[in-house]
Write a structure and sequence with these properties.
This protein is 38% helix and 16% strand. It has 525 residues and is of the alpha/beta class. The strands form 6 sheets. A 5-stranded parallel sheet has the order 11-14-17-10-18. Strands 1-2-4-3 form a 4-stranded mixed sheet. Helix 21 crosses helix 22. The longest helix has 19 residues. The termini are far apart.
C-alpha cells in the first residue's frame, strides 16, 4: 500500500534560511529512488546515503519506488543537511515511524547510520526558530552550536537508530552502533579535532601586544583613533618599520562584540568552518589577512552554485587587513568600495544570489614604491618617478577617499630601538578605547548607531555639527577642492572619535585639526 510521509528541513541562501517541506511517496512500481526539487550533486547523492544508512540501522527503506519532493520545488537545494529529513519522510511514508509535524531535521547521514555534523547549523537553526519551529533535531556534534540560538529546543542524536526509536520504530528491528566500534572511535577523533579547530584564532594569552612596537607614536595614535571609532586605516611606509605589527595588534585593543554582533559573526563562521567547529559565540573581533594573490572571489565571496562568503564577510565586525595593498588586483580592490559604504556584500550568480554582512574595518598597508626605499632621502631607491606614481596609483582615488585615516610610518630611530623604557601595552590602550566606545554608545543609541564611523552626513551637519570655529579650516579645504564632500564627513567622524578619547563633549579646533591631518599622508602621493 502506498503512502506519503512528510518532514521539515532548512535550506540556506547565504545567511538567510527558508523552510523546506520534504515529501516522500511510495509507489507500486519497481524499486527506484527519485529526488525532485532542484537538488545539487551532493544532495542528489543522498539517495545512496539514505538507503545504506537505513539498511545499516535495521529499518530498510521500501523496495518499491520512492519519490521525494523538496518544496518549494522552484528554489535550488544544496548540501547534505537534508539527508535526515529525507530519511525520516521516507520511513514515515512506509509507516515505520511517526514524525512530529513541527520538528525540523538537519543532519548528514553516514553509511553506518550515524548522524554527521553539517556546516551552517547556526543560521539554519536561527531560520527554523524564526519560522516558528523551535524543535530541531541535529547531530550530536552540532548540538553545542545549535544551542547557541535563543529559543531553540535542540534534540541531539548520535545515530539514526536512536532517533527512530524515539519516533516509534519497532525496537526489535533497530540496530544501534556499538560504542566501541571503529566508526565510533573515528567519530570521536573527528569531534576532538573539530573542537580544537577555531579557524586559526590566536589564544588571548598569546595575542600580539602593542608593547612590542618600538616608537611609531603617530602610527600608534592613528591606530587608537581607528579602534575608538571603527574607522578605516591606511599606513604607508618602507618595509620593516612595523606596519604589519601595528595591524595585527588592532584586534587586541578593540572591545568584545555584543550579543547581536557575536551572533552575526558566529553565523558567518558557521558557514566557513569545519562542521561542529563552532561551540561558542565568537566574542572577539575577527581578523582576516588574505595574501595579495587572493582573487576577487576569495575576498568578496562567490563560487559555483549559491555564493559562499569571502574574506570581507568573514571579517564582519572585525578587521580586513590587506598587506602590500598595491599588489592586489585593481578590480579586487575596487570591489571593496561598495561594502565599505553599505556594510554588506550582495553576490549574484545564475543559481541564485546571496547577501552577506560585511561591516569591517579596512586596514591597508603599502610601501612607498616597488622597491620600498623611496621614503626619507630615498638614496637607495632604484624606481623612476613614473614607476612610483604608477605603483601607488593602483590604490584608486575613490577607494582611498573611503579610508578615514591615512598615516605615514617612518623608520624608528636608534633611540626608540635601544630604549629600555617599555612601550604602552595593549591593555592600557584598550581601556581608553573602551571608554570612548561607551561615550559613543550613550550618544548614538537614540539613532540606532554604534560607532562614529557609522554616523550619516545628515547628523554630522545637524545635531553632531561642531562649533563654526572648529570647522572653519575644514570648510576652507572643501572650497579649495583638496577635500571631497565624502572626505568632509569622514574628517568629522574622526574628529568625534578623537574627542571621545580626550573626553570632550564636542570636537574642538584641535580635534578637527588632528582629524584633518589624519586625512592625508604628509607629502601627498
Amino acid at each position: 500500500m502506498s503512502g506519503v510521509g512528510r518532514a521539515l528541513g532548512i535550506g540556506l541562501v547565504g545567511l538567510n534560511g527558508y523552510l523546506v517541506e520534504v515529501e516522500a511517496d511510495i509507489g507500486q512500481t519497481l524499486p527506484a529512488f527519485v529526488l525532485l526539487g532542484l537538488p545539487d550533486s551532493a544532495l542528489n547523492e543522498a539517495k545512496e546515503r539514505v538507503r545504506s544508512a537505513a539498511q545499516n540501522s535495521g529499518i530498510p527503506l521500501s523496495r518499491r519506488k520512492i519519490t521525494v519532493n523538496l518544496l518549494p520545488a522552484a528554489l535550488s537545494k544544496r548540501g547534505t543537511a537534508f539527508d535526515l529529513a529525507i530519511t525520516v519522510a521516507a520511513l514515515a511514508a512506509a509507516g515505520d515511524i511517526r514524525v512530529p509535524a513541527e520538528t525540523v531535521f538537519i543532519a548528514e547521514l553516514g553509511l553506518d547510520g550515524r548522524l554527521r555534523p553539517v556546516q551552517g547549523i547556526l543560521p539554519a537553526v536561527m531560520a527554523a526558530v524564526r519560522a516558528g519551529h523551535p524543535d530541531i533535531v541535529v547531530a550530536a556534534a552540532n548540538g553545542p552550536e545549535a544551542r547557541l540560538v535563543p529559543g531553540a529546543r535542540v534534540h541531539e542524536y548520535e545515530s539514526l537508530g536512536g532517533l527512530v526509536l524515539d519516533l516509534g520504530a519497532d525496537p526489535l528491528k533497530v540496530l544501534l552502533p556499538e560504542p566501541g566500534s571503529d566508526a565510533a572511535m573515528a567519530e570521536a577523533v573527528v569531534r576532538r579535532a573539530d573542537a580544537g579547530s577555531e579557524g586559526g584564532a590566536i589564544p588571548e594569552s598569546g595575542s600580539p601586544d602593542l608593547r612590542d612596537v618600538a616608537g611609531q607614536a603617530d602610527a600608534r595614535a592613528a591606530l587608537e583613533v581607528a579602534a575608538a571609532g571603527g574607522h578605516h586605516l591606511f599606513m604607508l611606509g618602507p618595509p620593516g618599520v612595523g606596519k604589519t605589527m601595528l595591524a595585527e595588534r588592532l584586534p587586541g585593543i578593540l572591545p568584545d562584540l555584543d550579543d547581536e554582533a557575536a551572533m552575526e559573526v558566529t553565523a558567518i563562521h558557521s558557514l566557513s568552518k569545519l562542521p561542529s567547529a563552532t561551540r561558542e559565540l565568537v566574542r572577539r573581533p575577527p581578523f582576516e589577512s588574505p595574501h595579495h594573490t587572493a582573487s576577487q572571489v576569495a575576498i568578496i565571496g562567490g563560487g559555483s552554485g549559491i555564493p559562499r562568503p569571502g574574506a570581507a564577510s568573514r571579517a564582519h565586525r572585525g578587521i580586513l587587513f590587506l598587506d602590500e595593498a598595491p599588489e592586489f588586483g585593481g578590480r579586487t580592490l575596487d570591489s571593496l568600495r561598495q561594502p565599505l559604504e553599505s556594510g554588506e556584500v550582495s553576490i549574484h550568480r545564475s543559481a541564485g544570489h546571496a547577501t552577506y554582512p560585511a561591516r569591517f574595518q579596512l586596514v591597508l598597508a603599502a610601501n612607498p614604491c616597488p622597491c620600498g626605499q623611496s621614503s626619507g632621502k630615498g638614496l637607495q631607491c632604484t624606481c623612476t618617478p613614473q614607476a612610483r606614481r604608477r605603483y601607488l596609483a593602483r590604490l584608486s582615488g575613490p577607494l582611498l577617499d573611503r579610508v578615514d585615516i591615512q598615516v605615514g610610518v617612518r623608520q624608528p630611530s636608534t633611540y626608540d630601538l635601544a630604549s629600555n623604557e617599555p612601550a604602552e601595552a595593549s591593555a592600557v590602550v584598550a581601556a581608553r578605547v573602551r571608554a570612548a566606545r561607551e561615550r559613543q554608545t550613550e550618544r548614538l543609541a537614540p539613532y540606532g548607531l554604534h560607532t562614529n564611523a557609522e554616523i550619516p552626513g545628515r547628523l554630522l551637519r545637524g545635531p553632531f555639527r561642531p562649533p563654526p570655529s572648529a570647522i572653519r579650516t575644514l570648510e576652507q579645504a572643501l572650497e579649495r577642492g583638496t577635500l571631497t564632500a565624502r572626505g568632509y564627513d569622514r574628517v568629522l567622524r574622526v574628529a568625534w572619535s578623537i574627542a571621545d578619547l580626550a573626553g570632550h563633549d564636542v570636537p574642538d579646533d584641535d580635534d578637527v585639526g588632528q582629524a584633518l591631518v589624519f586625512r592625508t599622508i604628509e607629502g601627498g602621493r
